[in-house]
C-alpha cells in the first residue's frame, strides 16, 4: 500500500470489512455503541490529565467525541474520506500523519488506537517526525506489536498472520517502535494502562507504549495514576472472572516479586518427598501485573531428590512489560534444562528471574482456577 492508495479505506473497509480483509463490521454503529472507546477516553483523562489531545487515525472520531464530552479539547485526523464524512465530532479532519495541520507542540498528548500499523512505508518516518513535532508532553500508542502478547511466537509467522489484513504495513517489536520515536527525542515512560473492556479482536492492555517528548518532562505522576487505575481495574476483572468464567483467579493465588537492585528472586512451591503435582494434562494461565521496568522471567517445573535440587527440570522463559501480561502454556512448551522431567510427578515449582526496578504481582492457575504457586499448606518463598 502506498500513500496514493488511501482510497482503500472506504465505506466497505469499515462497514463490511470481510470484503477487504479486515475485521470491521458496521463500524459506524458498533463504535458508537462500544464501551471500549469511552473507556479509552476516560482512562486517558485519568492518567494523563491532558488539556488538548490529538488522535492519529481516529476513523469516525468516537474517542475524539468522548474526550470532548469529558471536557478535553480533542482533535482527530484520518485519511479516510468516508470516515471524516461520517465523523462523530466536528474536530475530525481529513489529513495524513505525515502532514499534520497543527502548530509545533500544540498537544499535551498525541495518541493512536490501532492505526500506526497502517502507515505506508513511503510516509512512515515523516509521520513519526510529525507526531513528535506536534506533541508537547506525552505520546500514547496502542497497536499490534510482534513479540507482545498475543502476538508471540515465530516473528515471521506472526507477521504473516497479521498481514491477512493487507493494510497492516508496520509490524515491529515494541523495542523497534520505541527506537523509531527515540530518533526524534522521545523517551519511553514505564507506564501502561489496563482496560476492562478488552475485545477478542482488539487487544489494548498489552499492545501499547507510552513516551514523553523529552527528558525534562516529569512522568512520576503519570506512572502513579496509571498504577492506581490498573490495580482498581484488575480487582474488577478478578471479580468478573470469578463470577462469570470457568477460569478464575482465587484470592489466595496472589504472589509478589519486588526488585530494587538487580538480583535473582523466585516465588517457589516445594512439596514433601511423598507429594507430587500432576501437570501433564494441564494448561497453565499466568497473569502478571508489572509496575516499573520491563522484566524477564522463567517458570520452572521439576523434581527434587533427597540429594539434588531440580534433578530433573524444564523451563519456560517469558518477557513482561509494564501493565497486564497474560500467558497460557503447558508442559509441551517447557524446554528441558536437566535430566528427564516427568511432568505428571512434579514436586518443585518456581517463577522468577534477575531484574531491577520493578514490582510484579503474579497469578498462576490452571483451567479450574487452582493455584499452582501457593497452597494452604505451603508457603511462598522469595
What does this entry look like structurally?
- Helices cover 24% and strands 28% of the residues.
- By secondary structure, it is of the alpha+beta class.
- It folds into 2 domains: 3-237, Vaccinia Virus protein VP39 (Rossmann fold), CATH 3.40.50; 248-366, Jelly Rolls (Sandwich), CATH 2.60.120.430.
- The strands form 3 sheets. The chain has a 7-stranded mixed β-sheet with strand order 3-2-1-4-5-7-6. A 5-stranded antiparallel β-sheet has the order 9-15-11-12-14, with no helix packed on it.
- Helix 3 (35-48) crosses helix 4 (62-69).
Question: What is the secondary structure topology, with strand pairs?
Answer:
Elements: H1 11-15, H2 27-33, H3 35-48, E1 52-56, H4 62-69, E2 73-78, H5 81-85, E3 92-94, E4 107-113, H6 124-134, E5 135-142, H7 155-162, H8 174-182, E6 187-189, E7 208-212, H9 220-244, E8 254-259, E9 263-270, E10 284-292, E11 295-303, E12 312-320, E13 323-329, E14 335-338, E15 348-355, E16 358-366
Parallel strand pairs: 1-2, 1-4, 2-3, 4-5
Antiparallel strand pairs: 5-7, 6-7, 8-16, 9-15, 10-13, 10-16, 11-12, 11-15, 12-14
- Total DSSP E strands: 16
Element order: H for helix, E for strand: HHHEHEHEEHEHHEEHEEEEEEEEE
Mean pLDDT: 87
CATH architecture of the largest domain: 3-Layer(aba) Sandwich
Q: Give me the CATH superfamily of the largest domain.
A: Vaccinia Virus protein VP39
Uncertain residue segments: 244-252, 375-382
CATH secondary-structure class of the largest domain: Alpha Beta
CA(first)-CA(last) distance: 51 Å
Share of residues in strands: 25-35%
Strand order of the largest sheet: 3-2-1-4-5-7-6
Q: What is the number of helices? A: 9
Class from helix and strand fractions: alpha+beta
Shape: elongated
Helix fraction, binned, reads 10-25%
Main sheet characteristics: 7 strands, mixed
